[in-house]
Amino acid sequence: MKLHNTLTEVTNRIIRRSEKTRTRYLDQIRAAAEEGPGRSRMSCGNLAHGIAASSGADKAALKSAVKTNIGIVTSYNDMLSAHQPFAEYPAQIKQALHEIGAVAQVAGGVPAMCDGVTQGQPGMELSLFSRDVIAMATAIALSHNMFDGVVLLGVCDKIIPGLLIGALSFGHLPTICIPAGPMRSGLPNPEKARIRQLFSQGKISKDELLSAEIESYHSPGTCTFYGTANSNQMLMEVMGLHLPGAAFANPDTELRGALTKAAAQRCASIGISNDAYTPLGQLIDERTIVNAIVGLHATGGSTNHTIHLIAIARAAGIHIDWTDFDELGSISPLLCRIYPNGPADVNHFAKAGGLGLVIAELLDNGLLHEDVQTVAGPGLRAYASQPVVQNETLSWQPSPTNSLDENIIRPCAKPFAETGGLKLLTGQLGRAMIKISAVQSIHQVVRAPAKVFHSQEEFLDQYNTGQLEHDMIAVLRFQGPRANGMPELHKLTPCLGTLQDKGFAVALVTDGRMSGASGKVPAAIHVSPEAALGGALGKVIDGDMILLDAVAGSLEIEIKPEDWAARSQAIMPETTQTGMGRELFSGLRQLSGPAEQGALSIPGLGEQPKQEGT
Question: What is the pLDDT of residues 498-526, one digit of tens each?
Fold first, then answer.
């Protein structure tokens, strides 16, 4: 299938833009690979420290520096449902590797926090920066230089991006991501949303709300809605960093165990000393990143990845921006309806044909690069399949050629929408992203007076006292990475949804985030530059008429140029940046770059390529 012209044009533009930084990165990882396995260059004292705690057989294998050693970087903790299953994975991985004459060591752990727990709480101000902490923790784990390959145990929002950013600093090492899978379906998502809205209207008690939430989030595994965590898993498949079909097998199943074993053994077979050597830094290239963006659009994935994918790409020397997202979105049909874009959860999605069907459909219509490298071997076509276990043997079979439920997955010939779920907005107020896959067409253009807020609490106080019963565009500013760490603002969703249901024209404009659960209310998010860096949101006052037009891709304020120029910039209000560990992150806030540059607090990765003549 001939590639779509826009796909080719955007890919070539990214290659040209990234030429210098990508060349420098590839030179760096080639030099590391040419040095050979790290253990072979260690002093006796170094190596003795590195194998002191190993068992007799493993110690002998590591001492010889002949057998492949896989480093395990894990995000295990037993408070968070998505990561609790990882408790058993190191033992399973080690056993799987022993069967083929290889060994493994737990290289280190990384923190894993849950936005679902911290949503609307002070801890949410650490959430985005946890990604960069995870990246640095991954680098520390791998810095011992004991390994021939890496397996990354992670699932959720900042964890997968952080693990990848860190692992890309060791891009000469083959790397496979191993997920834990989603929990089984609980309370249907539309019912959960209905109950949340009833609570926001004061019609049910907190105990009733808690009972519903516990029915939704009820067991080990990832949350089942299609937020950032499950968008992560989709991306790992489309980027070829999972074994095919690994994303949505439930925990504690025979299939999940078989996939974990196979991933460990595959990592050893593509290790640094093997003929099938597949370094992470070469696998993730410009085509892989473009595939990831198309996958995000086609499935209606998380807005958070308009930040995270930029950061991951930069870690590999590749530079992308929101214009690339927007142009690829214009050719990517929306093929999936998964909550919050529809009633189905990821378990229903998997049963309807899953990622294998979606990848096949995109490949067959020239919307993905097929000629990429993956951890399963050359070519993305292997991911148009689904894993099965028969007689205790894992194998792959072709995915269904047609959707088993067209309310959840559709072909390119009759998509849910002709274009992708994410769109770029530009105008006098800056550049922003909006997720429109769950926004009805009648709500995609909103013209209303501004109502300015400086915190979620201020919004909620006015909502609870009935002061917001009117058309408005809520402008919530000083929520960017430099201001307070760019917390998600999902706590506003039920209230905004209620106002919309009452017939008011409402929207949100913010330099903060809204999460992978961005829903039915239009929200221009990640507005850049942020107000704390002199962005236009800092000049908006109550009553200014704002036009948010997701159809035309514009975000404008209706004011005479001379009046706008005369406006002074609002001063960021003093806020509490202490308590709940926030004081420890003051340095990261000061270093953080703009959202469109990945909101990175690691300056070396945030550098833009120098333009010719500068």
Answer: 999 999 999 999 999 986 556 789 999 99
